[in-house]
Description:
Blueprint: E1 4-5, E2 12-13, E3 24-25, E4 34-35, H1 38-42, E5 47-55, E6 61-68, H2 73-86, E7 89-90, E8 92-93, E9 99-100, E10 102-110
Antiparallel strand pairs: 1-4, 2-10, 3-7, 5-6, 5-10, 8-9
Amino acid sequence: MRRIFSIFVPPLVVSSAPAAAQQAPKIDLRTVLFDYPAQALRNGRQGTVYYQLLVGKNGKAKSCKITQSSGHADLDEETCRAMKKRVRFQPATDKVGKPIEGIYASKFTFRIPH
């Protein structure tokens, strides 16, 4: 049986755009579903993954980089997979309102509920 978790830590946002036009997810990130890797779940592995996304003009993550590992490759990989697949952003904009690429950075904590 696959268990799905949604655990959220508030985001840190960094963008090349002015402060008023920073990247913003189009959904509440607390609702993003992460598939807890089966072996990590069986082995009781938990951890916090810090990541950075390059968000394209279309609001989709073009790339994902782990900036600080949880210490478990499967948790790190699931974080990037879920963010790239399931989250869309309101793109950052330039001074005239034209969409531009931007950076979104945050962290996600995998914790097994007891």
